[in-house]
Write a structure and sequence with these properties.
57 residues, two-stranded antiparallel sheet, 7% strand, globular, DUF4250
Length: 57
């Protein structure tokens, strides 16, 4: 279950990306997540996925 709070969600997603996944697409595929919905939630607080560094900033 993903955190509902957007800041906690950001922390969770970035930690997963740093520790376990080589890309956001891989994370979403492996965990069966709706990547577009998560990206929209994080964009609402000013964060977008940066592929080059594999994290939301």
């Amino acid at each position: 279950m993903l955190p509902k709070d957007p800041v906690m969600l950001l922390s969770y997603i970035n930690t997963q990306l740093r520790d376990f996944y080589g890309s956001y697409e891989e994370l979403c595929r492996e965990l069966d997540l709706d990547g577009e919905k998560i990206a929209e939630q994080l964009e609402a607080i000013g964060y977008t996925y940066e592929k080059e560094i594999n994290q939301f900033r």
